[in-house]
Design brief:
The protein is mostly helical. The chain has 22 helices and no strands.
Length: 580
């Protein structure tokens, strides 16, 4: 199930137009344009439950205002400006990626800080600029939260329906070439629904609608686990399972026909923010790798733009951060850089026409709203085309209140973007050769370790908080493994070769993980008693930890002889693949 982008696009356009109209109404369109920087708030949290969304948007709005304020404060000294935008960029990458803030991510905060340097020419104090941006953020907050008046639980309902459709697609793909990819999409959708129903909810106070949705999501997890267990045997899942998943997802079928969720069970939320932030900084973390890339590229891009004297160095930093902040693989990073470069140059032509017309008042608000609407409709599927309108919107906001030398401005922006994209891509190509080499094998080791942590619960009780926590961590590690496999397949020639050699081992590890998850669900739901004896579980867990340690040290993998029946075939395939 996919959701339309029209509502988000309309909210973004409205959030942009209102500050411009207010500024026009009070006779200060420049202040209205500065306030539109706060309208970026409307681009966050579109799929979150409304209560959690309100908190997130408030934090984003304050962070945007703070970014603009510190950017303006640093504007008097060029090198200080480069340093401040670079620091804000690295901090934003850490916070946004570690806490899974969601798109558009860290780039917006780097852009806001860079814009703060630019709008310092308005001769307003930094705190005044921050207050204007905060006002624009307040408008965006109200626009984004307005949907709660119509249907308060709509984001949760959409998340469950999406999970139901993804589980159904996986069931239909069992036995086909697309089974692995469909299983990954179903696991990710179920995790997103769990976040919407548990992690992004208050600890207490669930209403009837939320309990209904949690019951549906619980049943979808059971169907997913049963389908994975059935996929190991020749007949596979029952044909009607896919239809059942869809009907449970859209709440047209009773989840109790599949499984009943214990109402008194304490919901398991995701780890605390502090734990996630610490985990992002540990050696080998992908978020840490992305932070290092941005920490190198941002000051390099700023310094290069300053030394070449091509214009405002902070726009070059923003372009470099855009290329790198998502931590994308080799192919997508190169494509993002090329899309941004070509889109910017084409956007300069559109911007030239708008700046030449120099619209004011209602026309300026309408044009900016139309640009934002188009951006949101295109940005996911056609980023290169969206870049055309992103460039036009940015230049219109930056210069819409006064006439400028269009030719000089366009030349400077084109040059800044070229420098930033070139530096971002170059830094990625150099650093990723060292950072990505061990990512796949380390991801395999992480999953094997997570299985070792989960297995002992199969000898005791899989319904405890600790057991469910280990199952959650195993599923997250498995999702990360699939991301590492995809990154290797889209990497450089050397990384693709490594990925090809490790593909059988990664596939066996992924199957092992999902078998362990399915076994936990079977024991949890069927209440059939422990599936393993304590001694057998401990022996298997010790051998798995030894295997993970051997992977991390790149030594010969030991034999695993104590695998239980549900894991035996996959463990044998894994050790054989590693030795080959």
């Amino acid at each position: 199930m996919s959701t339309s982008r029209w509502p988000l696009a309309v909210r973004a356009a409205t959030s942009t137009a209102i500050p411009v109209l207010v500024g026009t109404g009070v006779g200060n369109v420049g202040a209205g344009l500065i306030a539109t920087l706060g309208a970026f708030t409307a681009r966050f949290g579109g799929d979150r439950p409304y209560l959690n969304r309100g908190v997130q948007l408030a934090v984003v709005s304050v962070a945007l205002a703070a970014s603009v304020t510190v950017g303006s404060w640093s504007a008097q000294v060029a090198w200080l400006g480069v340093a401040v935008v670079s620091v804000v960029s690295v901090a934003a990458v850490w916070l946004c990626n570690a806490l899974a803030v969601g798109p558009p991510g860290a780039y917006v905060f780097a852009l806001a800080c860079a814009a703060g340097i630019g709008v310092s020419a308005a001769k307003l104090a930094p705190w005044q600029l921050g207050a204007l941006v905060l006002g624009g953020g307040a408008v965006a907050w109200l626009v984004q939260m307005a949907g709660a008046l119509r249907e308060r639980r709509r984001p949760e309902r959409v998340a469950v329906a999406t999970a139901g459709a993804a589980v159904a697609a996986y069931v239909e793909a069992v036995g086909s070439a697309g089974e692995t990819a469909a299983r990954h999409r179903a696991a990710a959708a179920l995790h997103a629904a769990w976040n919407a129903l548990v992690s992004f909810q208050p600890a207490t106070g669930a209403d009837d609608r939320l309990r209904q949705l949690r019951a549906a999501n619980h049943a979808l997890h059971v169907l997913f686990a049963d389908a994975m267990t059935a996929s190991a045997v020749a007949e596979g899942p029952a044909p009607e399972t896919a239809d059942t998943a869809r009907r449970i997802g859209d709440l047209s079928a009773d989840p109790a026909t599949v499984s009943t969720r214990a109402e008194d069970r304490v919901p398991l939320a995701r780890p605390r923010a502090a734990a996630l932030l610490r985990r992002a900084l540990r050696p080998g973390s992908h978020v840490r790798h992305v932070m290092v890339r941005v920490a190198v590229a941002a000051p390099l891009a700023g310094a290069a733009a300053m030394l070449l004297d091509v214009g405002h160095a902070y726009w070059a930093i923003a372009a470099a951060v855009l290329v790198l902040h998502q931590g994308a693989d080799h192919s997508r990073t190169l494509r993002r850089g090329a899309d941004r470069l070509v889109g910017t140059w084409l956007g300069l032509i559109l911007a030239a026409g708008i700046l030449w017309l120099h619209p004011q008042g209602w026309w300026l608000a309408v044009i900016l709203a139309a640009l934002q609407l188009t951006i949101e409709m295109l940005v996911v599927r056609h980023y290169g085309l969206a870049s055309v309108f992103i460039t036009a919107a940015a230049l219109t906001i930056a210069t819409g209140s006064h006439r400028v030398d269009v030719g000089e401005l366009l030349l400077a922006r084109g040059s800044d973007t070229l420098i930033g994209c070139a530096v971002g891509v170059a830094v990625f190509l150099v650093l990723s050769r060292f950072q990505e080499t061990g990512r796949l094998v380390d991801s395999v080791a992480d999953v094997v370790d997570a299985v070792a942590t989960t297995v002992p619960h199969l000898a005791a009780d899989t319904a405890t908080l600790a057991a469910r926590r280990s199952r959650r961590d195993l599923q997250l590690a498995t999702i990360d493994l699939r991301d590492a496999v995809d990154a290797a397949a889209a990497g450089s020639a050397r990384l693709r070769a490594t990925g090809e050699r490790l593909r059988p081992a990664a596939a066996a590890t992924e199957r092992l993980a999902y078998r362990a998850i399915a076994a936990c669900w079977e024991m949890d739901v069927r209440a059939s008693g422990p599936l393993l004896g304590p001694d057998d579980a401990d022996a298997f867990a010790r051998q798995l930890r030894g295997l993970a340690a051997a992977l991390r040290t790149r030594s010969t993998p030991p034999s695993v002889t104590d695998a239980p029946d549900f894991a035996s075939a996959d463990v044998t395939a894994l050790t054989a693949a590693l030795r080959n």
